[in-house]
Design goal:
476 residues, two-stranded antiparallel sheet, mainly alpha, 2 strands
């Protein structure tokens, strides 16, 4: 426990020092932030790999039986490594993206330091969330992620729409956490504790469970609380990439996995998760097929993909509880690469509309190839890590009868259609208006993620083992 506490203090110091350096050296802030996020990834991974005793339990709020519990189990460790690694990639992309973005908005380069501080704060909020083991403290961490997303979505304060979109996201994602708090307090009143490992699942009421789940549905942008997410695309591309792949939207699904053992005796709650997830998958897919904005297509895709994960959480079983974290991680790598692709293409040719983006494969062949790998992964094609996420999704559906098999097939087919529409519309059309150039800092992060997507498709056992361990936690 003492070593774990010392390493957590070191992690806090690394992030805090990096934040200070970002403000002092704004031109170097993206590299400083990426280095700090990489250090956080290594620290989290090392604590997990060495299997050290990793639990802190301190007094917190005796009136509700709450305690400050921080725990690094296979689910929280995997999510922590995943979140910090994708933060490093997003900050690396910032180096090539943000100077041009600030110039377009007539703002000084010094704003880059503040942006990177907010990104590191977002990462820190996620790391806190994945480690907390108490419902009331988890509520605080959820509110912190909502606050950081509000500040980042509204980063372009000269854009009135940015402020409105940020406020909408805060009201829905932050306000929904109050419902989560109500569920926690109902459990505290019944059982005298809010420490997750001490809660007796058989005594959790349907009302309390519904409050907990309702409190995170908005964060994962599930129907009918999905509409804030496409509007949040007005944020700079690194924010969109991180928000959709490993931060706020992923946080909602992660909390569902973390609390899954509490709902095992409540079939009505699990059925609600299944049908909300499947409806979100189908509606999100339809909207992605109709959208024209590059990031809007990917935003609706996120709604659909996290609908798959939510359905897996509800369906449970061996395939479902292993498939949910596997799907979450595989989707995150692919989706981050595709968002960064959208940002690179927008920077290269000045358009963010699918109808105006065409022929980019001629001038951006490396970006086209790397994003093709990510698109293939999201669509679940062989030789990519996405193939196995779809395999687990179909295996889970097959365990529950023909209706779910048909719905799973329809959802997977829509995924193939909208992601194919995205990639072909951006790269494959022969028409082009002028030469386009994307700098190495814009392309390199996409290539790195494409390597991960391909590696996971060829050597799947490491991620499979991680997902099995995380699924074991979700199974209780």
């Amino acid at each position: 426990m003492a070593i774990f506490a010392d390493l957590l203090i070191l992690l806090v110091l690394v992030v805090a020092v990096a934040m200070g350096l970002c403000l002092l050296r704004p031109r170097a802030a993206p590299l400083i932030g990426a280095a700090a996020a990489a250090a956080a990834t290594l620290l989290m991974g090392w604590m997990w790999w060495t299997e050290m005793p990793a639990r802190i339990d301190l007094p917190w709020f005796a009136a509700t039986g709450s305690r400050l519990v921080l725990d690094l189990d296979p689910l929280s460790a995997a999510m922590g490594v995943f979140s910090s690694a994708l933060a490093a990639v997003a900050l690396l992309f910032t180096r090539g993206y943000l100077p041009h973005h600030l110039q377009e908005h007539g703002r000084p380069i010094e704003e880059q330091g503040r942006f990177c501080v907010l990104m590191l704060g977002f990462m820190a909020a996620m790391l806190l969330l994945v480690m907390v083991g108490d419902l009331v403290v988890m509520f605080g961490a959820l509110e912190l992620t909502a606050l950081m997303s509000f500040l980042l979505i509204g980063f372009d304060r000269d854009e009135p729409e940015a402020g409105r979109s940020a406020m909408l996201a805060l009201v829905l994602t932050g306000g929904s956490s109050l419902l989560f708090l109500l569920g926690a307090l109902l459990i505290a009143a019944d059982q005298g504790t809010t420490v997750i490992t001490e809660i007796r699942p058989e005594e959790v009421s349907t009302v309390a469970a519904a409050c907990l789940i309702g409190g995170v549905l908005a964060k994962s942008a599930q129907m009918p609380l999905h509409f804030w997410l496409p509007r949040a695309m007005i944020a700079p591309t690194p924010v969109s990439a991180y928000l959709h792949s490993a931060a706020l939207v992923a946080a909602g699904v992660f909390v569902g996995l973390r609390l899954r053992p509490l709902f095992g005796g409540l079939p009505e709650i699990l059925d609600a998760l299944i049908w909300i997830g499947l409806v979100s998958a189908l509606v999100g897919g339809l909207l992605a097929l109709c959208a024209d904005g590059l990031k809007a297509i990917l935003a609706y895709s996120t709604i659909a993909q996290y609908g798959h994960v939510l359905a897996l959480v509800g369906l449970g079983g061996e395939h479902g509880l292993v498939g949910a974290p596997f799907f979450l991680f595989a989707h995150g790598f692919c989706k981050a690469a595709l968002f960064l692709t959208a940002g690179a293409v927008t920077s290269a040719n000045g358009t963010d509309r699918l109808s105006a983006a065409s022929g980019n494969w001629r001038d951006l062949p490396v970006l086209a190839g790397a994003s093709a790998v990510a698109a293939a992964g999201l669509a679940g094609l062989p030789l990519t890590v996405g193939y196995f996420k779809e395999e687990l999704f179909f295996a889970t559906a097959a365990d529950h009868g023909p209706v779910l098999i048909w719905m799973a097939t329809l959802a997977a087919g829509m995924t193939f259609a909208y992601i194919g529409r995205f990639w072909l519309g951006v790269f494959a059309n022969r028409e082009r208006a002028r030469p386009r150039i994307a700098t190495t800092p814009l392309v390199l992060p996409v290539v790195l993620l494409a390597v991960v997507v391909l590696s996971g498709g060829i050597l799947v056992s490491p991620l499979a083992e991680v997902s099995m361990a995380a699924g074991g936690v979700a199974a209780g």
